[in-house]
Amino acid sequence: MKKLLFTLIAGAALFTTSITDVKAQDYKTAAGLAIDFGDGSTLVGPHIKHFFNANGAIEGDVLFASGATFIQALYLHHGDIKGANGLRWNLGVGPGVAIGDNNTNFLVRPNAGLDYKINNAPLGLSLDWRPAWTFFDGGNDFNAARFQLGFRYIFK
After folding, report:
1. CA–CA separation, 13 vs 20, rounded Å?
2. What is the tens place of the pLDDT at every residue in 95-148?
3. pLDDT surpassing 90 at residue 8
4. Is 2-155 CATH 3.30.70.20?
């Protein structure tokens, strides 16, 4: 299953890169508020995104829900969308940990999304599909119906 997921993400990144113009990102670092929602609890908290090259970024979140804290980091590969100034697609994956009242669970979060930098303003928006594989004592679970909405202030 892990090989299949990696193959799908890598294949989609290569295909999309081949049909888009590749250029530098519109910003280097941004921070703001993330809302993770879908099937289950809604999580809210701060997040930060930092580009370390033209297409590669890391993103970190600390999200809170009733009785739980989620800490996660993702690597995201970005590409431009022809004719859509400021709008970029991204694919990635990363680990996370969910700390609850009496337990700790580990997560793997694939990501497929859109990132938009508003022209002439230091603001960005993102919408991502972030399914979650959760590993806990005694088993694991997969939740495909998870999404994240991000609102960020852009630091050049």
Report:
1. 11
2. 999 999 888 999 999 999 999 999 999 999 999 999 999 988 778 999 999 999
3. no
4. no
Answering whether pTM is above 0.90, one says: no
How many helices, marked H, and strands, marked E, lie in the chain? 1, 10
18 is written with which tokens? 């081949």
Which is nearest to 31 in space by CA: 138, 130, 156?
A: 156
Rounded to the nearest 10 degrees, how much is the dihedral formed by the CA atoms of 53, 92, 130, 6? 180
Over residues 44-51, the mean pLDDT reads 97
Size of the chain, expressed as the number of residues it contains: 156
Sorted by where each begins, the domain ranges of the chain are 2-155
Q: How far apart are CA 122 and CA 133, in angstroms?
A: 34
- Chain centroid to Cα 88, Å, comes to 13
- Name which of 77, 73, 130 is nearest 96 in CA terms: 73
Which residue reads 């630091």 in tokens? 155
R_g of the chain computed on alpha carbons: 16
Tokens of 109: 């979060």
